[in-house]
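so my prof wants the structure for this chain in the tokens format not the other one, which i didnt know existed until like an hour ago. anyway here's the sequence
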Amino acid sequence: MYQPPHFREERREVLHAMMRAHPLAALVTFSDGRLDANHVPMLLDAGRGPQGTLLAHIARANDLARRHDSGIEVLVIFQGAESYISPSWYETKRETGKVVPTWNYVTVHAHGRLRIFDDPAWLRRQITALTETHEAGRALPWHVDDAPEAFLQSQVKGIVGIEIEITALEGKWKVSQNRPAADREGVYAGLSADGDGAMADLVKRASED
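here's what i got, hopefully its the right format
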């Protein structure tokens, strides 16, 4: 992706934290002369491989499971906070008027090779880990074993597992770093007034770095 230096984020712990916070990713593949994208919740195992490994499952009926062999190169896109930025928030607008709207956003691109698993034990471990991750902290967390065993076995038969060892990570944090300090302060105030605390915090943190 297009990467101006001031928007580039390379700290692995920051990239991993964003991927965990926004786990529903677009898994992009290419075959038969066409691009395809599937939106899949990913589980990150940071300790496997130099950049980490992504684990997920998809429906057995999905073309991704039926048309692709293990080993193909894939791109996984994680989309974080994003917001329209009004030029009316900039101090520069009052000084010169030479401003235009833009869009702030945070994204991570993970590159790697796809492996497909059709092993009930592997799938059971993956869905259990994924469920425990997202049920953690709930007053009454749901557990995989809460469902009848025969029902679980039938559900597992309808999915296949995927694993992607990450070979490269790209992060882009476009959060007004290219604007003067007074403009960034205006963006923070404008986003806060609009109730967009997530992007406002990102703008503030980038200004403090």
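also thought this was worth mentioning. The mean pLDDT is 94.
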